[in-house]
Amino acid sequence: MAFYFYILYSKNLNRFYIGHTGDTLDNRLKKHLSNHKGFTSNAKDWEIVYSEFYETKNEAYQRELKVKKMKSKKFIKNLINSSK
Fold first, then answer.
1. Mean per-residue pLDDT for 9-35?
2. Given 30, 39, 45, 49, which residue has the most CB atoms within 10 angstroms?
3. What is the number of alpha carbons within 13 Å of residue 5 lying toward its C-beta?
4. What average pLDDT does range 16-31 have in this prediction?
C-alpha cells in the first residue's frame, strides 16, 4: 500500500493545506473538492502542488506534523520550489 504526504494550494484563498492519505492523490483531491464540511470546503480551486511517497501511514503522518510545526509559508514555498 502507498501513503502520501501532500500540500494543496488555493489561489482563491491564497492558502495551503497540508495532509496525508493512504488513498491515491487524485481520489483525495476529489474529496477535498467535493461538497463537505471542513477547511477545504471554503474553496473549489485546490490543486496538489507537492507530494511525497511513504511506505507507512505513520511516516506520512509524521512528515505532515513536521511541516505543520514549521508554521511557515516560506518553508512550504521552498519545499514546493525544491521539487521543480
1. 96
2. 49
3. 19
4. 97
Amino acid identity of 38? G
User: Do 67 and 76 touch, CB atoms closer than 8 A?
Assistant: yes
- pLDDT at 62 exceeding the cut of 90: yes
What is the three-state SS of 11-79?
CCCCEEEEEEECCCHHHHHHHHHCCCCCHHHHCCCCEEEEEEEECCHHHHHHHHHHHHHHCCHHHHHHH
Closest to 18 in 3D by CA, of 80, 81, 82 = 80
Burial 14-51 (b: 16+ CB within 10 A, else e): eebbbbbbeeeeeebbeebbeeeeeebeebeebebbbb
